[in-house]
Write a structure and sequence with these properties.
Number of strands: 28
Number of helices: 19
Shape: globular
Structural class: alpha+beta
Distance between the termini: 64 Å
Radius of gyration: 25 Å
CATH class of the largest domain: Alpha Beta
Largest sheet: 6 strands, mixed
CATH topology of the largest domain: Creatine Amidinohydrolase
Strand content: 15-25%
CATH architecture of the largest domain: Alpha-Beta Complex
C-alpha cells in the first residue's frame, strides 16, 4: 500500500493490528532508552500522525484514534495532526491509558511495545483496562515498524571520547563510585539504559541523536567497577576502545536482552523511570532479584564539578557573543522587512558556526514571529515560516552544543514600535524572571516551591503560561536534563520534588503567549551556588546567571519596575557589557553598550 497520507498510514496500521489480533495500540514518542529526543528510526509518532513536537503520544482503538500533548503543543498539534482522524487530548487532564480505558470494550486486546514504555506505565494501564475486562498485550514486533516502508536505520556514527579536561573526572573514578553505590545497596550490578547517563559515566559522546551528543548503547555496571557496554561494534574505533580500557567490555547491542537473563540468584538494580518494561521482564525471567532505584549517574551528572562549571561559563561567554552579534544584526535588518523566521534562524546558526567550535545546536531553533510565537515549542519549516514585519514581536529560543558546555537562551525583540499591551506583558515576564533570578532559598528547597515567583506578576492580571519555568541542563549533553526542574504543582513532568543543590544548572524561562498574536519568553541558564547572608541560621542557595546577552529594553515598561528590579537589570547588563563586550568588534560593541545601557 502506498502510504503518502496520514489516513493511509492509519488504515495500514488498522490492517496490521487486525493481523496481529489486536484491538488497539499505543504509540509514544520515545525510544528504548526513554529518551526525550530520539533518532530518526524511532520517530514513529511523527510518521503516523504528522506531529513533530518533542513530547506526546497517540492511541488507536478500533476506528478511533487520539493524540495526547501538553499545553506547550496546544496550537502545534492542531496545525500538524488532522482533527478528522485524531481526537486532540490534553495532558495532564487525561492520558493515553485513561482514554483507552474509557473507550475499551470487554475482550479488547490492546498492544504496546515493551521496549518503549516503563513497567510502571504498563502495570497501571493493564489495571485500568482490566476493569473493562480488556487486556494490555506486549508485542514482539512493533506494528508501526512492520508497515513503515523506508524507515530509517539507526545511526552508524562512531563513538567519540569526551576529554577528561572537559569532564573533570575520569571514567574510572565514576565507575568506582557506581561500584561503591552497588555495594551499599547490596547489588551485583546496575542496568543503565539512559543514553546521557552512559555518555556521562564512560566519558564518551556520540552523534546518534540530532542535537544531543549521545550514542545508542546499553550498559551493565558490575560491583567490581567493570562494565558491559552494548553497542554496534562498528561504532567503536581503536581510540575509543583504548579510552574505555580493559574493564569496559564492548558487546553487540543485540546481546543486551540475553545478558539481562544471566543474573539468576543475584540482585540487580534498575531505574523504573528510565529502564523500559522489557528490561524488567528479562531480568525477572532470568531469575534476578530486582532492586528498583534511581540510576546512580543521574544526581552526580546533574551536580557539575568545578571543571564543568568553568567550561559552561566559558561556553556561555562564547555563545553570548555569538547571540549578541545576531541581535545587533537583527536590529538593523528587521526594519528592512526582508527577514523571515527561517532566514533569521539560519543567520543565528552562522554566528554560532563562526566560533569554530560549535558541535551542533542543542535543539532545533525556535524562531517565531506573530501567531507562531504563541506556540511555545514551535518549530519553523518552509511551510510555516512567516515574514518578520514591523509592529510584531520576534522570539528566538536557541542553543549550542560545545565540548565545554551546552547553552539554551531565549530573547524576545520588538520589531518597530510595540503596543502598550506587548510592553506590559513583556515587563511582567521580566519581573517574574528577575524575581526567580534574585531568589535566595534554604538548602533542600524544591523547584516547585520557587515556580510561583516567576508567575506572580502574570497571575496579578489573570494571565499564566502552560509550561515549566525551568529545566536542568547537561554538560555537553542533553539540553533537558533531570532530575531537577522548576515547574508548577500541576506539571506532568517529573523532577519537581528534587531538592536543588549547588552545582546544578537550570533554566529560568517564564513567558506569555497570546493565541493568534504573539509570544514572549525570557530565558537565561543559571547555576545554583551557595549564598552567604549575615545572620542566616540555615545554609542558603541562590542563582548565578550563566547566560549573558542583552534583554530588549524597547519592550520594557519602566514604570512597572521597582527600584530593586531596575538595579538587577542594570547590574546584569553591566556584566554583559564587561564579559561579552571585549569579544566584539565595532560596530557591534558600540551597539551593545547602547542596548545594555542602564535604565
Amino acid at each position: 500500500m502506498h502510504m503518502s497520507t496520514i489516513k493511509d498510514r492509519l488504515a495500514a496500521l488498522a490492517a496490521q493490528l487486525a493481523g496481529d489480533r489486536l484491538s488497539g495500540f499505543v504509540i509514544p514518542l520515545t525510544d528504548e532508552h526513554m529518551s526525550e529526543y530520539v533518532g530518526a528510526y524511532a520517530q514513529r509518532l511523527e510518521w503516523l500522525t504528522g506531529f513533530a513536537g518533542s513530547a506526546g503520544s497517540a492511541a488507536v482503538l478500533g476506528q478511533k484514534a487520539a493524540i495526547f500533548t501538553d499545553g506547550r503543543y496546544t496550537l502545534q498539534v492542531r496545525d500538524q495532526v488532522p482533527g478528522d482522524l485524531f481526537e486532540y487530548q490534553d495532558v495532564p487532564k487525561t492520558s493515553a491509558a485513561a482514554w483507552l480505558a474509557d473507550h475499551a470494550a470487554a475482550g479488547d486486546r490492546i498492544g504496546y511495545d515493551p521496549w518503549l514504555h516503563t513497567r510502571g506505565w504498563a502495570d497501571a494501564t493493564a489495571k485500568l483496562l482490566a476493569a473493562k475486562n480488556a487486556e494490555l498485550v506486549p508485542v514482539a514486533v512493533n506494528p508501526i515498524d512492520s508497515i513503515w516502508a523506508g524507515r530509517p536505520a539507526p545511526s552508524t556514527a562512531a563513538l567519540e571520547i569526551h576529554a577528561d579536561d572537559n569532564a573533570g573526572r575520569t571514567a574510572a573514578q565514576k565507575r568506582e563510585d557506581v561500584a561503591a553505590w552497588l555495594k551499599v545497596h547490596g547489588a551485583s550490578a546496575v542496568v543503565i539504559t539512559a543514553l546521557d547517563s552512559i555518555a556521562w559515566l564512560l566519558n564518551i559522546r556520540g552523534r546518534d541523536v540530532d542535537r544531543t551528543p549521545v550514542a545508542l548503547a546499553f550498559a551493565i555496571v558490575h560491583a567490581d567497577a567493570s562494565v558491559d557496554l552494548f553497542t554496534a561494534p562498528h561504532k567503536l574505533t581503536p581510540e575509543v576502545r583504548a579510552h574505555l580500557g580493559p574493564q569496559v567490555r564492548p558487546q553487540d547491542r543485540n546481546a543486551f536482552d540475553d545478558a539481562l537473563g544471566g543474573f539468576s540468584g543475584k540482585t540487580v538494580a534498575a531505574d523504573p523511570s528510565s529502564a523500559v518494561a522489557a528490561v524488567f521482564a528479562a531480568l525477572t525471567s532470568g531469575g534476578a532479584t530486582i532492586l528498583e532505584a534511581r540510576d546512580p549517574c543521574v544526581l552526580p551528572k546533574a551536580i557539575k564539578n568545578a571543571v564543568e562549571i568553568n567550561g559552561t561559563t566559558t561556553a556561555h561567554r562564547r555563545d553570548g557573543a555569538a547571540l549578541t552579534r545576531f541581535l545587533h544584526w537583527f536590529d538593523g535588518e528587521a526594519a528592512k522587512g526582508q527577514l523571515t523566521e527561517l532566514s533569521a534562524a539560519a543567520r543565528l546558526r552562522q554566528f554560532r558556526d563562526q566560533t569554530n567550535v560549535l558541535e551542533d545546536l542543542s535543539f532545533d531553533t525556535i524562531s517565531a514571529t506573530g501567531a507562531n510565537g504563541a506556540s511555545p515549542h514551535y518549530r519553523v519549516s518552509e511551510a510555516s515560516s512567516l515574514p518578520i514585519t514591523s509592529g510584531s514581536i520576534y522570539l528566538v529560543d536557541s542553543g549550542g552544543q560545545y565540548r565545554d558546555g551546552t547553552t539554551d537562551v531565549t530573547r524576545t525583540m520588538a520589531v518597530g514600535t510595540p503596543t502598550a499591551e506587548m510592553k506590559d506583558r513583556f515587563t511582567r515576564v521580566l519581573k517574574g524572571h528577575i524575581a526567580l533570578a534574585r531568589a535566595v532559598f534554604p538548602a533542600g528547597t524544591r523547584g516547585v516551591q520557587l515556580d510561583s515567583l516567576a508567575r506572580q506578576f502574570l497571575w496579578e492580571v489573570g494571565l499564566d503560561y502552560a509550561h515549566g519555568t525551568g529545566h536542568g541542563v547537561g554538560s555537553y549533553l542533553a539540553v533537558h536534563e533531570g532530575p531537577q526542574r522548576i515547574a508548577a504543582a500541576w506539571s506532568s513532568q517529573p523532577g519537581n520534588d528534587e531538592p536543588l543543590q549547588a552545582g546544578m544548572i537550570l533554566s529560568n524561562e517564564p513567558g506569555y503567549y497570546k493565541t493568534g498574536e504573539y509570544g514572549i519568553r525570557i530565558e537565561n541558564l543559571v547555576l545554583v551556588e551557595p549564598r552567604s547572608v549575615p545572620g542566616a541560621e540555615k545554609d542558603l542557595l541562590g542563582f548565578r546567571e550563566l547566560t549573558l546577552a542583552p534583554i530588549d529594553r524597547n519592550l520594557i515598561d519602566t514604570g512597572l519596575l521597582t527600584e530593586t528590579e531596575r538595579k538587577w537589570l542594570n547590574t546584569y547588563h553591566a556584566r554583559v557589557i564587561a564579559e561579552i563586550g571585549p569579544q566584539l568588534d565595532d560596530p557591534t560593541r558600540t551597539w551593545l553598550e547602547t542596548a545594555a545601557a542602564p535604565i
